[in-house]
UniProtKB/TrEMBL annotation, chain A:
<feature type="region of interest" description="Disordered">
    <location>
        <begin position="525"/>
        <end position="545"/>
    </location>
</feature>
<feature type="compositionally biased region" description="Polar residues">
    <location>
        <begin position="613"/>
        <end position="622"/>
    </location>
</feature>
<dbReference type="InterPro" id="IPR013083">
    <property type="entry name" value="Znf_RING/FYVE/PHD"/>
</dbReference>
<dbReference type="InterPro" id="IPR013087">
    <property type="entry name" value="Znf_C2H2_type"/>
</dbReference>
<feature type="region of interest" description="Disordered">
    <location>
        <begin position="207"/>
        <end position="239"/>
    </location>
</feature>
<feature type="compositionally biased region" description="Pro residues">
    <location>
        <begin position="698"/>
        <end position="707"/>
    </location>
</feature>
<dbReference type="InterPro" id="IPR017455">
    <property type="entry name" value="Znf_FYVE-rel"/>
</dbReference>
<feature type="region of interest" description="Disordered">
    <location>
        <begin position="409"/>
        <end position="437"/>
    </location>
</feature>
<feature type="domain" description="FYVE-type">
    <location>
        <begin position="157"/>
        <end position="260"/>
    </location>
</feature>
TrEMBL record, chain B:
<dbReference type="GO" id="GO:0016192">
    <property type="term" value="P:vesicle-mediated transport"/>
</dbReference>
<keyword id="KW-0333">Golgi apparatus</keyword>
<dbReference type="InterPro" id="IPR043154">
    <property type="entry name" value="Sec-1-like_dom1"/>
</dbReference>
<protein>
    <recommendedName>
        <fullName>Vacuolar protein sorting-associated protein 45</fullName>
    </recommendedName>
</protein>
<dbReference type="Pfam" id="PF00995">
    <property type="entry name" value="Sec1"/>
</dbReference>
<dbReference type="GO" id="GO:0000139">
    <property type="term" value="C:Golgi membrane"/>
</dbReference>
<dbReference type="GO" id="GO:0010008">
    <property type="term" value="C:endosome membrane"/>
</dbReference>
<keyword id="KW-0472">Membrane</keyword>
<dbReference type="InterPro" id="IPR027482">
    <property type="entry name" value="Sec1-like_dom2"/>
</dbReference>
Length: 774, 607
């Protein structure tokens, strides 16, 4: 609880997110965390360990903790009230219900049945193969007959007086025919023929299938069975008189049926209908989208936030790629829809329905994913965004510093206030030095030098007071009093901890809201910017200029980087064990809050400047790592109290001064400008980066700006036609097309009209622009 | 314990197991309803299921490039259809799932029919009930009892449904039932029998406190289904009728074509999910907010989008706008219609008196109010009859009972014979003689004080004073105070601890008011999860016309009415029945028999 000796520091520093203790360094915090809270939420622990983790997670964590604490049913939509129980919608996920498989049973029964059937088919196929194995046309009929009889024993003519299929009596006119495949007898009417091509097809396919897959049911024993053919069977008179079958094989209806079924199976196996082919392509495309789209969205989001993690060109390439896939999906599904529609006879309604459904689902897919595909900023916008972002961060930092200063100032005030009050009553205790005991009965709140900092929080004050009482009591040797005081202190601290946690939760929520607001503002800014651009009307030439000019702007904001050096300092200091709490306190006032600014810095810059020991890869704009929460805990409250009543008087003039440099900044940026560290009179003096400011590392990117760049730009702004980025136009046209399609699909005709109107407008704009650029 | 999720998981598993490729879902009449309650069309399309067929449909084409997922109830007809199907397979491969226990002999005959080896899977997935809300299920059985006794067919269906529910939630419960009801006892025994027989299936991980199945009978509380409701879901069901999440708005004057029938599903309609348990007034303001939100997002038609910025803003908002527009128009229409009906039928006033009849014991004032309303020409004959029924149920044995006078009033009002008959029928069904417990006068001291206090405090909302009797029953059950002489355990063992997982089943149907009660109990009682089920989900008309008066059904209309009453619109139904247009006949076809109709999308597919 040593940290509570210096409550003034509680608001900023390496605070433990759970007990709000101030640990002087990241390492101490980590070890503290592992010792004290190892049993607690592992999620939180992970957060601390990987300080670099994304901002949102930290927010989620807090919200989640809140949810857990109160067993709340979640605050969604339009209602939010919580009782002790759980909304049925929130019942924890359950496992899949009971089920029972009958498959093995089923297979057992089926196998018994199927073996029989498969054996039959195989037998027939093998015989067929034998029957077609020789050259039928060039062989005598007698020889053919002999071979045929060797394949399967023919049934004796005398045994069959009637055709077994139709029941007609056999006679001279109604002669007997033998099935070459099973040897049975039927009349001519009931006889079927198998052409050689069919036979070949059947035999060759079965060879394939035999070689490829050996089903247990296709038993090789059938081969032996077929060899039982005997030549001894008596040839009937009728058979001798048969005309020679050159290119076909006689068989009975049963055998033919079996074989035809077989043929059908083979056909099905080999034949893939068009729809399947198209469909497979379609699915491939969809998979591709599923793969690429998230990647793109991540990029676009990052770029739209003005980050520089990804390159704009790469993203727009990806966009084009994804869009192409969408087009392909659309085309493919359209093709599926119209497949065979014009055929005569028209396909079965079910087929049409299938086609419609596939098309519909593809449409849904495109709608869902394409509409989620946000557009990219144009180059100019991107530059603008980058700048904005920097300023935003800058502004934030300034605000923080202001807040810190403000609180410092207020502390001063309070201290003097307290001092004056103290003079009224009792003697003011000396600022430094050992505790002095005035009265035997009471202990005075003891202030110690710098750290006697006052707290806006009465609880903290109280805690502070009690600590000093304890010390005094101890010095006076009153152990019993020390004990009660300590007890008292513990209770107070508990109370305070709890309060802080609640506050943290509240703040994180508020911050989330703020973030949203900021995003909205940013959006508004962007739009206004675009509008202005349009008005300015610059030629291509001036546009490049203006772009260059923007490149330069960041340098003016360069001082924004300086805090990072302090961060380095702070980290160094923090990690050195020699750095005690008091040391931090005695260091220049602005230094204490520094580390935090460093942490909240933009990732791109952060990477450059942060010490190696801390892997910083945060890419979210208003970064929210666990530390930031505490930082915010401090800053907004300070802001809230400090800024409204008295806007820093000292800031006014410098801000205006700066605006002279920056005539292009819109009013809405005033905040940022006002907060420019350049204007800060109290910014720490020794800054190794100051030099760099004059020779920015990125100069190569920008061509030397002659004379006054502002003039140029503004000149350019007044002439020329609308400089609408062609790319943007095309993007919008794409989007609108998708919407029109969607609206048509849903039959919202009025929307279609509006959209079409839009599309026309856009196209016109595109045309004029093209004409202009030519 | 989430029943919607349980069924959904089953369906997802089926689809997953069949692997990639185009699929057709083969269902029967009932499973179609079951599936459509948990999956929307677009959701299921995303999983490559493109066709939905009925196993009994003759008009199916051979499509060997499709995989078939069969989800069927294990009935004799279905097995026969399946055997035919397997003999001449229309699809390349079959994944067969039965929604309940199937006999070994059926499996054998199926196996023998599968000569072409097209079957890849035969499983039992116990999604054999209609999941309405996460905590509410129904079996869509109307008229389950004949008099006091079970219709044997329905008893076996109910047993199947209930055991399937237990299996899908993996619960092997202890069973309690309402002693006063023979039907409840019978059902309890049947369920127990199945559990004993299929003991292997019911072997689940033991929980500390075993789950509890409580079987009740509707006749114990005939009041609840008679009251007008004021929460969104209940109101929609009472006034418009919900059938498998489907609402028929075709009778709404001036309705646009695409809103004739709307789907209200909490699964994919956020507004509905958030508002289904709120009362009418709250919904009114919520819908106003919704509209305002919508107006903000709506692209302004008049305002020309002049700049690229405008356009981009529009384009970026469009997806949200699109999503919203469907919800907004749907709910605005539904709520609009509700409020129209409320004012047209004078329901606020009627409801107030209903609540008084149900909750208070002031005979003379109640009688006076009923008489007054009977004179009001705006009160429909149905509502009038309903008031008299409530009066009859409450003051059945009251010393100054003036039921005959009221009946005279009804006659004078011109209320038809049909409705007047209901009054005696309802007493027959749920009168004092039948009730196991007393609905109206509290017995124990606590309850009396409670009621007294309530009287002192005054009521916050006159329209929602009534608490279903189920609330008290469950409250006692949760506290471990439910009397064993009224609700005995089946079998020797009893529950020592307070129950945690409770499944309540009401023979004769649950109501949405009770669903709300259970919902609130779930939310307010930590550690307790309650699922409510019924043979159906009632509204007044359903209960009265079907449960109470089976003998009246043939009078009402032949054939179809027995099959499925469309809420309160007999003429519409009969017209449908006699219509010759293919659409109408198909609709009739899809809604025939025990009331498992299709979702509109399924219906469209059948066309």
């Amino acid at each position: 609880m040593a940290s509570l000796d210096d409550p003034g520091e509680v608001r900023e520093g390496f605070l433990c997110p759970l007990c709000l203790k101030d640990l002087q360094s990241f390492y101490q915090l980590q070890s503290h965390y592992e010792e004290e809270h190892s049993g607690e939420d592992r999620d939180v622990k992970g957060q601390i360990k990987s300080l670099v983790q994304k901002a949102r997670k930290a927010k989620n964590r807090l919200l989640k903790r809140e949810g857990d604490d109160r067993a709340e049913s979640g605050t969604h939509g339009y209602e939010s009230f919580s009782y002790g129980g759980v909304d049925p919608y929130m019942w924890e996920p359950q496992e899949l219900g009971a089920m029972r498989s009958h498959l093995s049973d089923f297979k057992k029964h089926r196998a018994a049945r199927i073996d029989h059937y498969v054996v039959e088919v195989n037998k027939l196929i093998i015989r067929l193969e034998k029957l077609t194995a020789f050259d039928r046309t060039n062989t005598e009929s007698a020889k053919i007959r002999a071979i045929e009889k060797s394949v399967v024993p023919w049934v004796n003519d005398q045994d069959v007086p009637f055709c077994p299929d139709c029941g007609n009596k056999f006679s001279i006119r109604n002669r007997r025919h033998h099935c070459r495949l099973c040897g049975s007898i039927m009349c001519k009417k009931c006889m079927e023929l198998i052409s050689l091509p069919l036979a070949n097809k059947l035999t060759s396919a079965s060879k394939d299938s035999l070689s490829t897959h050996t089903s247990p049911s296709q038993s090789p024993s059938s081969v032996h069975g077929s060899r039982r053919g005997s030549i001894s069977s008596v040839s009937s008179v009728s058979s001798v008189l048969d005309e020679k079958d050159d290119d076909r094989i006689r068989c009975c209806t049963h055998c033919k049926d079996t074989l035809l079924k077989r043929e059908q199976q083979i056909d099905e196996k080999e034949h893939t209908p068009d729809i399947v082919k198209l469909y497979e392509k379609l699915r491939l495309c969809m998979e591709k989208v599923d793969q690429k789209a998230p990647e793109y969205i991540k990029m676009a989001a990052s770029l739209n936030a003005g980050e520089t993690t990804y390159s704009l060109e790469h993203a727009s390439d990806l966009r084009v790629e994804v869009q192409k896939v969408y087009e392909l999906i659309d085309a493919l599904s359209k093709k599926i829809l119209t497949l065979d529609v014009k055929q005569d006879p028209p396909p079965h309604p079910n087929t049409l329905r299938l086609q419609r459904m596939i098309r519909y689902s593809a449409t849904l897919f495109v709608q869902e994913k394409l509409l989620g595909l946000m557009s990219l900023p144009t180059k100019e916008q991107f530059e603008e965004l980058k700048k904005k972002r920097k300023q935003e961060i800058e502004r934030k930092r300034i605000l923080e510093r202001q807040a810190a200063l403000e609180s410092q100032r207020r502390l001063e005030e309070r201290r003097s206030d307290l001092a004056s009050r103290a003079t009224n009553g009792e003697v003011v205790p000396p600022r430094r030095g050992p505790a002095s005991l005035r009265k035997a009965e009471g202990w005075l709140p003891l202030s110690e030098g710098q750290r006697q900092s006052e707290d806006p929080d009465p609880l903290l004050q109280q805690i502070h007071n009690i600590t000093s009482f304890i010390r005094q009591a101890r010095a006076a040797g009153r152990t019993d009093e020390v004990r009660t005081l300590q007890e008292n202190l513990r209770q107070l601290q508990d109370e305070y901890d709890q309060q802080q946690t609640e506050k943290a939760i509240e703040l994180s929520r508020r911050q989330a809201e703020e973030e949203d607001l900021q995003r909205e503002q940013l959006q508004a800014l962007r739009e206004r910017e675009r509008e202005r651009e349009r008005d300015q009307a610059a030629s291509l030439h001036t546009r490049t200029r203006s772009l260059d000019f923007r490149e330069i702007k960041p340098f003016q904001l360069e001082p924004g980087r300086e805090p990072r050096t302090h961060l380095a300092h702070a980290l160094d200091l923090g990690s050195s064990p020699a750095q005690s709490g008091t040391a931090t306190k005695t260091s220049p006032p602005s230094l204490a809050p520094e580390p935090f600014r460093g942490w909240s810095g933009p990732p791109a810059l952060g990477q450059e400047f942060l010490p190696q020991s801390i892997p910083t890869q945060r890419s979210e704009a208003p970064s929210l790592n666990p530390f930031d929460e505490e930082e915010d805990l401090a800053s907004p409250s300070a802001e809230g109290t400090a800024s409204p009543p008295a806007p820093e008087p000292s800031l006014g003039p410098p801000a205006r001064l700066l605006r002279e440099y920056n005539p292009f900044e819109e009013e809405e940026e005033e905040e940022a400008v006002a907060g420019n560290p350049f204007a800060r009179p109290d910014s720490p003096a020794p800054n190794p980066f100051d030099q760099e400011d004059e020779h920015p590392p990125r100069t190569p990117a920008s061509p030397p700006v002659p004379g006054n760049p502002f003039e140029e730009d503004s000149d350019g702004g007044r002439e020329g036609a609308e400089p609408i980025e062609e790319e943007l136009l095309l993007q919008q046209i794409d989007n609108i097309k998708a919407y029109i399609f969607d609206a048509k699909q849903c039959g919202r005709l009025d929307e279609v009209e509006v959209l079409t109107e839009n599309l026309r407008e856009l196209r016109r704009a595109l045309a004029t622009q093209k004409a202009g650029s030519d | 314990m989430n029943v919607v999720f349980a069924v959904k998981q089953y369906i997802s598993k089926m689809i997953e197991d069949s692997g990639p490729g185009m699929k057709v879902l083969l269902m029967d009449k009932e499973t179609t309803g079951i599936v459509s309650m948990v999956y929307t069309q677009s959701e299921i399309l995303q999983k490559e299921v493109y066709l939905f067929e009925r196993i009994d449909s003759q008009n199916r084409e051979i499509m060997k490039h499709l995989k078939a997922i069969c989800f069927l109830r294990p009935t004799k007809e279905n097995v026969d259809y399946l055997i035919q199907e397997l003999r001449r397979p229309k699809y390349s491969i079959y994944f067969i799932y039965f929604s309940n226990v199937i006999s070994k002999s059926d499996v054998k005959s199926l196996a023998e029919a599968d000569e072409q080896e097209v079957v890849a899977e035969v499983q039992e997935f116990y999604g054999d009930y209609i999941a309405v809300n996460p905590h509410l299920f129904s079996l869509n059985i109307l008229g389950c009892c004949q008099g006091r006794n079970w219709d044997p067919v329905q008893l076996s269906r109910t047993t199947q449904g209930l055991t399937a529910l237990l299996l899908s939630l993996k619960k092997c419960p202890m069973i309690r039932y309402q002693l006063s009801s023979e039907a409840a006892k019978r059902l309890a025994e049947c369920v127990k029998q199945v559990i004993t027989k299929e003991y292997e299936l019911f072997e689940f991980r033991r929980t500390e406190v075993p789950p509890l199945l409580l079987i009740l009978d509707r006749c114990d509380d005939a009041i609840t289904p008679l009251l007008n409701q004021w929460t969104y879901q209940a109101m929609v069901h009472e006034l418009l009728g919900i059938n498998n999440n489907r609402i028929d708005l075709s009778r709404v004057p001036g309705i646009s074509k695409d809103l004739r029938e709307v789907v209200l599903s909490a699964e994919n309609d956020e507004f509905y999910a958030n508002n289904m348990y709120l009362n009418f007034a709250e919904i009114g303001s919520n819908i106003k907010n919704l509209m305002e939100d919508f107006q903000k997002k709506k692209p302004k038609e008049q305002q020309k989008l002049e700049s690229i910025a405008d356009m981009k803003a529009f384009v970026e908002n469009y997806p949200q706008f699109k999503k919203m527009s469907g919800t907004v128009s749907k709910h605005v229409t539904v709520v609009g219609e509700l409020s129209r009906l409320v004012s047209e039928r004078n329901l606020l006033e009627v409801s107030e008196v209903e609540q008084e009849l149900a909750c208070q014991n002031d005979h003379s004032s109640a009688l006076q109010n009923v008489k007054r309303l009977l004179q009001n020409p705006r009160v429909t004959e149905f509502d009038a009859a309903r008031l008299v029924m409530l009066y009859a149920l409450h003051y059945e044995r009251h010393s100054s009972n003036s039921l005959p006078g009221l009946m005279m009033d009804l006659r004078n009002k011109g209320v038809s014979e049909k409705y007047r008959k209901l009054v005696s029928a309802v007493i027959e069904y749920g009168g004092k003689r039948v009730r196991g417990s007393d609905l109206f006068s509290p017995k124990d001291a606590v309850a009396i004080t409670k009621q007294f206090l309530k009287g002192l405090k005054g009521v916050e909302n006159v329209y929602t004073q009534h608490q279903p009797f189920l609330h008290e029953t469950l409250d006692h059950l949760i506290k471990g105070k439910l009397k064993e002489n009224l609700y005995p355990y089946l079998g020797p063992s009893t529950l020592r601890d307070r129950p945690q997982d409770i499944i309540v089943f009401i023979i004769g149907g649950a109501t949405y008011e009770e669903a709300l009660t259970v919902y609130n109990l779930n939310r307010t009682t930590p550690g307790v999860r309650i699922v409510l089920g019924g043979t159906t989900v009632h509204n007044t008309r359903r209960q009265l016309l079907v449960s109470l008066l089976p003998e009246m059904m043939p009078e009402c209309c032949s054939g179809f009415w027995t099959a499925q009453p469309k809420q309160g619109n007999l003429s519409g139904y009969i017209k449908l029945n006699g219509a010759t247009s293919p659409l109408a006949s198909l609709q009739a076809f899809s809604t025939d028999q025990r009331g498992v109709g299709e979702e509109p999308w399924v219906l469209c597919l059948l066309l």
